[in-house]
Structure formats: structure tokens, C-alpha cells
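Section 3.1 - Work completed
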Amino acid sequence: MPRPAKIWFHTHKKFWCTKLGGKVHYLAKGRKNKEAALDAFDRLREEVKLLGDGSHRSLTVAALIEQFLAFTEEKRKPRTYELHRWGLQPFIDAYAGFKVHTITPHHVDRWSSTLARSGLNETSVAMAVESVLACWNWAVRKRLLPAHHLKNIEKPQKRQRTRFLTDDEFQRLLRATNPRRNPRFKPAKRRRLSAAALFRQLLLVADQTAARPGELSGLRWEYIDWDRKVWILPDHKTRTTQKTPRPRIIPMTPVVERLLRWRHVHCAASPFCFTNFLGNPWNRFSLRCRMRRLREKAGVGKDVVFYTLRHRRATKLVMDTGDLKTTSLFLGHQTVATTERYVHLAADHLVRFAERAMGGAAKAAPANGTAC
């Protein structure tokens, strides 16, 4: 049985030393610094316990993130790769040369605070921290690290989209997409929809279906079942979290069906159902840019984004039906708990319900006004 490690003072080099893992480690200089040497000895024992035979000591933060991003680019969706690359690049800038096993929650907290001071909101900072955690967890699964200390780091709370778009605001958005009619000396040989008119179609479909922006921009003609009047999306946001992956079903309203049939006749050159005036499918950047210009023109708040249309329809469904289970299926949520937050958005509807209920109770009360 090997003897337990201990410290001793090296009289020639004037250092407190110990031998762990077959290697001599210098802990503190000077005979009077024994307490500091003991503290360093405890930290070294914990490090050796963590890293085992020491084969992981040379792995740097930059090298680990490079391997993780290469794996993500090959095995994950392009959107996932872009998010991780965006979130991990600032971490490389801050700790590129650090050894991976030396990164502590304090390093991550200090880094996330720097991101917040640079102007990023809580949601963006939380997503960046999640990318760091995903990288370190992947390293443990791939046996690049035996364990890490980042399990209990604090993440900022992501902001919830609680903006409800009223009917009047939605109509203002639609009116703002009307193109200006420039007088022509000669009639146009070919009438082509403007960029604003194409975006108006997208707004109408988003309001009718409550589809996510990515589901609209990625919709293909082959995903449409005209007979059953539904979209069948094989690849969607919650597919990777389902125990049994199944496609997302989005029903078509008569308005959406008529619009898509018109586009299928006049705009079927692309495999995508919704394209811009150049014939290219929409993406998150073009949607964000177009929505920003549209809300400025319509005079609505800066908190109105394209995803607000999905929240508007979800809230109206809760208000009109009160059926959380069916609304959850319509929205493609995994659990009803996700749908329940729209009850809070429909607070005005609940107040009106309480007023009607109390009004009926007051009419049924005895005329003498006695209280029970």
C-alpha cells in the first residue's frame, strides 16, 4: 500500500514540496509559509482527485471549444451551431489560454457580468451561459473531462414575451404594408407583388396559424396535405425533446388555404411556400429587419417582434375557448404548463368574466340586501 502524500521543506531550493502522481510539486517559498503550503497542498490533492492520472491537465479552453464546435457543426442543426458559436466566442476571448479544469463558477459569473455590462440583455446572457454549460457537459460525456465544477452556476432569468398585440395594432401593421402606388405612363407588362405585399401575406398566415417564424420560413409545398387541410412538419422545435418524435400538425384556416393555393399557382417556382421578392426563403434576419421597419412605420412599440403574432393568437385562443389542452396541441407545446402562461396575458378577459359573474350574482341576491 503506497504511503500517503505529505509535504516537506526543500532546504536547497527553499520551497515547501510534495510528491503526487509521481511528480514533485513546489507549493510555497520560504520556511515561514507553511500555512500557505498546506492550503496549496489541499488544492493540489483535490485537483489530482478530479483529474485522475493527469491526462486532462493540458486541455485548454480554446482547444475544448474548438472540438465542441466541430462536433456541433457536424452533428447538430446549423441554427444550434450558430448559437453556440455566438455564445462561446466571448468566452474564448476571455479565457482562451486557461486550462479547462481551472475554470470555476466564479470565472463564468465574472464573464457573464461583463457581457451584461456590454449591453446584452438577460436572455442573451443566459443563452451564452447555456452554451458554456453545453460545452463542458459534452466534454464529460466524451471523456475529455472526468467532471467539472460548473453545475451550479447562476444564470440570468430569461425574459418572457408578455406583449399582447391588439386588433387595432395588428391592423396598423397590415395597413403599413400597403405599397405606395407610383403613377406609370405605361401599364406594367408583368405585375409582381412588392416586398411589402409579400410580407403582409406572411403576417396574415402567422396570425391565423400561430406558427413559429422558423416554421413559416421553412414551410415547403411537400409538407402541405391539401385534402386534410393541414401542414405536417417533420422537423420542428420540440422534436428533439419528445420521447417519441412525431411531426408537428398545423391546421389551415380557409383564409390560409386560399392564400396558399394562390401562391401555389403563381409562386410555385421555389420549394418553399413563402419567399421574398427575390424568390428566396425568409430567414430570421430578414424577418427581424422587415418587422423593425414595419413597426416604425406603423407606430407600434419596439417590443413588437414577429414572434408577438404567435403570442397574440395563443392569447386569443385561451380567451375565446378556455380549452388549455386543445390550445396546447394547436401551438405545438409539449405540456399544458407552457400554455398556462397565456392565461396571465388574458388577465383583462378574466376580469370581465369576474364582473359578469358577480353581476349575475348581484341580480340573484335578495332584494332586502341581507348578506350571508
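Second construct:
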Amino acid sequence: MDRIISMTAFVQVVESGSFAAAAKRLKVAPATITHHVRSLEDRLGIQLLNRTTRSVNLTEVGSVFYKRAAQILTEIEEAETIATEAQSTPRGTLRLNTSVTLARVVTPLIAEFSRMYPEVSFELIMTDRMADMVEEGFDLALRAGPLRDSSLVSRRVGLGRLVLCASPDYLAQHGTPRLPADLTAHNCLIHVTSFSGSVWRFTDAGGEQVVEVSGNLRTNSIEGLRAAACAGQGICLLPLVTVGDDLKTGHLVRLLSDFKTSEAVVQAVYPASRHLSVKVRTFLDFLVKRLNEDPNWTTRRNLDRAA
């Protein structure tokens, strides 16, 4: 660091024409400039400047040193500019890990973000298990439900309603439940890694009702549950973002619409030891904003329309 300071003082003396002018530019005392230039000459063992009472001139070797020193200081300034811009302009590759279900939510948002920040590219890896963030080199992961790894930092990015639904064929054969308690007589399709599992909760003006359900399909795949429900196998409790299109087309029918179901909390997670780059921070803020603008995640009214 002393070398850079001394080099800066020397270059400023050459470019401004005097020690006093260099001191004024750098906003220090003239004696400080003199000290740095002398220290530089002593370290190099050469005389860089010829000093008189009226002028300061470069020696032959000083001229050679000045050109190189000025170039080095310019390159340092450019490097600092690049680093500063890197912190203000998102760029580079963002490695993102999500579940298959959340990938359906985040993929359109990635496309929108990429249009806004064309210097950012994404590597999206979908896994049902929670990835090892450090070992597998992920910048960010999106997960629904509780986190088991306490070493991760989490931020809530969205809140989505779970929807109880079944196909028209299933309801025609087995009847339509009118109350949560009726579900015990139905074949319920269970997501085994969900925070709800086989215990489904419903709330109305009378309070909360807890129902332990059972059925002939248990799986860790939300897409598998959706496909089974559409095929008429049973009743499922799935995120609206997964079954919204099926509700609109009539492939599935929403049930118990007078009851409030559980909410799926979606969290963004990253290692506690990792400093968030500007690309990650910007994308994370973007996700929070977009998901909280989406009525699928924030209001019950949209659920009623989808039904």
C-alpha cells in the first residue's frame, strides 16, 4: 500500500509540475508529498526528479519510471471501476436450485429477469432433495416448507395457498366431501415430504379442523400427485400454482372452498458464510416483489375464481 501511495505522489508531482500543486490535488501537506517521493527514491536507490527552487524535472530513469507508474495507476483505477460496476450491475452466472414444482413458478420470472439484466445467465437445477449448497456450488435455492439445515440463511419470498381438489370422474364415483371430516372416507393422495403430510388442516369461522387422511398413493413428487388426481385416483392437497390450469380447464375441481387451507411458505436459502453478490441480491429482491404482486400467492379471491 505504501508503494502505491508513494507512486501516486510521484506521478502527481510530475503531472502537476510541483510538490505544492501535487499536495493540493491530493489534499495533503506538501511535506507529506516530499516524504513519499523521497521514500520511493530511497527504496529504488535512484533519483527520479531533479529539483530546483523553481522547477521539478524528471531524470532519464525517472521518465521511464513515470510512464510505467502512470500506466499501473491507471490500471488500478480501471480495476476498481470494474469492481464497483460489478457490485452495481448484475452480471455473471447464477446457479439456482429448486424443486420441480417451484421451477414452474420461477422459470417465467427468470425469463423476465434476463430481459431486464441481459448480462446475467442462469443454471437452473431441479431436485426434490435439498442440495448441498456449498459442495454443489449453488448461489441460491428455493424451497417450500420448513428447513432442516440450520447453517443456511433463509428469506421468505412468497406465500401460496394449498388447494384441495379432485377430478370430476373421481367425484362422480365416490361423491363430493362437504366437510373436512368427510375426507376420512375418501382416497387421499399424500405428499410425503410436505410439512402437512397426512395431517390436513382446515379453518373456517368455527375454528381449525385437523383431519388425518389416508390413501393408496404416497409420493414425494407433487407432479406425480397432480397426474394421479387428474387420472381420477383420489383427492389431493396441492399448491395452486401446480393445479391452477387444471382447475380452469375443469380437469380438477376445487373442494371445500368455504374453508381456508394451509399456506405453503416459499423460502430462498443460501449458506450463512457466503456473501451475496449483486446478481443474487437483485434476483432475490425481484422474486419477492413479483411473487407478492401475484394474486395466486397473496389473496383468497383468486382461489375462488380458479375454482
